[in-house]
Design goal:
Pfam families: HAD. The chain is of the alpha/beta class. It has helices spanning 18-29, 37-48, 54-66, 71-89, 93-104, 117-125, 150-160, 179-182, 195-203, and strands at residues 3-6, 108-116, 131-135, 169-173, 187-191, 207-209. The longest helix is centred in the middle third of the chain and has 19 residues, at 71-89.
């Protein structure tokens, strides 16, 4: 069976989700924490300077902007966030057309994303995709690490039960961080409007589509 795996941020939906989620969720569960948004911006700059990894950044961001809330409560907020974010940002239509083509061909559809599972599932449900591989949150931290790069490839391999290259696999992403999985897909698809990124992706042998 063909397996079609899609990234979320800037692949299915046009804009990144995590910082918008932090701001939206803070308004819902702890409005006073919105004054801490400049601190979050500084933390992101620290990550870009190489002071800590993405798992540490996202863990700190959750605690800074939201404090402590149950995963069930975050799932509730995530449902409303997904609705609002899609309305504001929109889906990337050529990729959604690819999803529907895969569905019509009987492919097994999966969203594999570094976004947190508690809201990534809400986006996937709106596309009638039941399988989600995403960053987990246990209320205090990120068990297994951020679902990104090699970690995402390993999570997909675990879900498939073997190396992705052994399957009839399409993988669609906008990020070169997903190279470990793109390189193992039979049909790697890269989403970009950048001429420089297009050239780099095509040099790697990946098919490119514009958002």
């Amino acid at each position: 069976m063909k397996v079609a795996i899609y990234d979320l941020d800037k692949t299915l939906v046009r804009r990144a989700t995590f910082t918008p989620f932090l701001a939206f969720a803070a308004r819902e569960v702890a409005p006073w924490r919105l004054v801490l948004l400049p601190v979050w911006v500084l933390m992101m700059l620290g990550y870009r300077a190489g002071l800590y990894d993405r798992t540490s950044l996202k863990t700190a961001g959750m605690k800074l902007m939201l404090g402590h809330h149950s995963v069930a409560r975050l799932e509730e907020v995530g449902e409303e966030f997904a609705e609002r974010h899609i309305a504001a940002a929109g889906w990337i239509e050529p990729v959604i057309a690819m999803v529907e083509a895969d569905r019509s061909e009987g492919a097994r559809l999966i969203v594999a994303t570094a976004a947190f599972e508690f809201y990534a599932k809400a986006f996937a449900r709106r596309l009638s995709i039941g399988e989600v591989i995403a960053t987990r949150w246990d209320g205090e931290g990120i068990p297994g690490g951020n679902c990104y790069g090699e970690t995402k490839r390993a999570r997909v391999a675990e879900w498939l039960g073997s190396d992705p290259q052994e399957h009839d696999l399409r993988f669609v992403s906008d990020s070169f961080a997903d190279a470990p999985l793109l390189e193992q897909a039979r049909d790697p698809v890269f989403v970009t409007a950048s001429a420089a990124k297009r050239a780099r992706a095509e040099a790697a042998g990946w098919r490119v589509i514009a958002p």
